[in-house]
Amino acid sequence: MLRRGSFPLLLLISLGHVLVISAQVQSKSGIPLIEAAAFGVFARFQQTTTGVTDGVKSGWNQYFALRGVERDNEQLRKRVIELEAQLQQEQAQAARARSLEEALNLQRTIAAPTLAARVIAGNPQPGSLQVMIDRGSADGVEPNMAVVGSRGIIGRVIGPLAPHAARVQLIVGRDAAAGAMLEKSGVGGVVIGGEKNPPLRLEYIPNLVDVQPGERVLTSGLDEIYPSGFVIGVVEKVEKSGQGDSGERTITVRPAVDVSHLEVVLVILRPAKTVEKPGGKKS
Amino acid sequence: MKPTAVIATVLVAVLLQLMFARYMIGGRVVFDLVLVAVVFAALQWGPVAGMLAGTMGGLLQDALAGGIVGVGGLAKTLVGYVTGQIGVQFVLTRPRARILPLAVATVVHRLLMLSFYGLIDQRWPQVWWTAMLWETGVNAACGLMLFLAAEAVPSALSRGRMSRRSTFSRRQW
Questions:
Q1: A219, A227 in Cβ contact below 8 A?
Q2: Phi-psi region of B3 (alpha: psi -120 to 50; beta: other; left: phi over 0)
Q3: Which ipTM did the prediction report?
Q4: Which among A122, A167, A258 is the nearest to B24, CB-wise?
Q5: Are residues A24 and B70, on separate chains, in Cβ contact within 8 Å?
Q6: pLDDT one-digit tens code per residue, B2-55
Q7: CATH number of the domain enclosing B21
Q8: Buried (b) or exposed (e) across A13-36, using 16+ Cβ within 10 A?
Q9: Which domain holds residue B53?
Q10: Cβ(A35)–Cβ(B69) under 8 Å?
């Protein structure tokens, strides 16, 4: 079955792959050059192809289907997302201001600037929960910046960055997590992504805390990635295994944002840890 | 084997995978158009083409996915080579007959990927059989379209050429 000429080539190529894998597994720090180069080149291609397909689509929608309504709709949708994100920020800020006033603490946070970005591609590895956006290092985007939508958080930027493209790890991904708190009680925990349905789990919540389905779960800001007060999702189920208070509790959370159809997102340009004090000093 | 055709097939598949993956995030529908292209190249042009398509497509996919570069490349190289050998042994020319090796290649590729990641992480990852079934079905459907197109386009072109020639000869006569 095996041809004499091609089999040594197969062995050679396989050996090359194994060497490449070994090199990465041994040194996980740093981004492999091949990864950075391929990402940059394909991001350009993808922007072009997305531009072409979107151009054809919008041309069709504007001239044959709705004659201009699509364009207005697009602008309005972007505006709504921006305003809703702004509203969330304002609400979070107001809530924080109230609690800080009560504690006689004068420290306050400034609403962070945001940058609208279009989702231009998914991840080529099947089942991987990442997307590519059309903003990159040249637009001021940096790794670990939070990405939000109109209804809540979407994920965070991960490296490597191209000048005009970046990869976003979705919060529903298996390796994703965010500092969280329950809206009513304010008790903090960690929301962890996964492959179940719903895909989020809220962990490290003490068993004595009353958690009811329907309660909103917000970002706590303690992870220094997601600013506090943004909606992560809603508690869907609270299941208890074992007897009494010592039994474990599984809290599943339905994400607020439907990640299956993302078009426009907002990148929060300042990391959550950058907090401005009244005197103008950043801590 | 035509190296340009193999490279073009793989590049188009990677671009399409990137483009369509955007609409399938978080859903149950999983597909791997790069694997479809690798199997297509293997059955169309032989094991060396399959192997090279697998290496190129897999490495590109790995580099773009942000995981460990080489895992997908190795899996696709092996799948491309073995599929090419099977194609040489059994001479699968009809599009429908090529669906079976594609379906088997999808399952083998997924299991290879899981095994490699299992070896690297030192723990066996969870196998999602439903997702694998979806991937096999969607890949088979995409493959069938590709195989049918690959069969129909050259024959349509040659029919067009023949009809032009016959019109010309009638005029001469």
A1: yes
A2: alpha
A3: 0.71
A4: A122
A5: yes
A6: 889 999 999 999 989 888 887 766 556 788 999 999 999 999 899 999 999 999
A7: 1.10.1760.20
A8: bbebbeebbeebeeeeeeebebbb
A9: 3-172
A10: yes
Q: Which of B21, B88, B89 sits opposite A124 (nearest CB)?
A: B21
- The lowest-confidence range among A35-44, A105-114, A225-234 is A105-114
What is the distance between the alpha carbons of residues A265 and A253, in angstroms, rounded to a whole number?
A: 21
The shortest CB-CB distance from B31 to any of A126, A172, A260 is to: A126
User: Is B51 within 8 Å of A9 when comparing Cβ atoms?
Assistant: yes
For chain A, how are helix, strand and coil distributed in percent, rounded to 5? 30, 30, 40
A259 has a chain B CB within 8 A of its CB: yes
Could you give the CA distance from residue A131 to residue A136 in angstroms, rounded to a whole number? Answer: 13
Closest chain B residue by Cα to residue A121: B22
Chain A residues touching residue B30 (CB < 8 angstroms): 126-127
Q: pLDDT digit string (tens) for B123-147?
A: 777 777 888 888 899 999 999 999 8
Q: What burial class does residue A104 get, using C-beta atoms within 10 Å of its C-beta: 0-12 exposed, 13-18 middle, 19+ buried? A: exposed
This prediction's pTM: 0.62
> What is the spatial distance between Cα B111 and Cα B143, in angstroms, rounded to a whole number?
20
Asked if A199 lies within 8 A of B26 by C-beta distance, the reply is: yes
From the CA of B154, how many Å to the nearest CA of chain A?
A: 26
* CB within 8 Å: B68 and A25: yes
The reply to whether residue B68 touches residue A21, judged by beta carbons under 8 angstroms, is yes
Which domains occur in chain A, in start order?
A: 33-272 (2.40.10.350)
CA distance A113 to B167: 69
B/e letters for B42-80, b = 16+ CB within 10 Å, e = fewer, are bbbbbbbbbbbbbbbbbbbbbbbbbbbbbbbbbbbbbbb
Which residues in A lie closer than 8 A to residue B131 (C-beta atoms)?
Answer: 127
Contact A24 B68 (CB under 8 A): yes
Identify from A12, A18, A19, A21 which residue to disrupt to test chain B contact, counting B C-beta atoms within 10 A and taking the largest count: A21
For A79, counting Cβ atoms within 10 Å of its Cβ (0-12 exposed, 13-18 middle, 19+ buried), the class is exposed
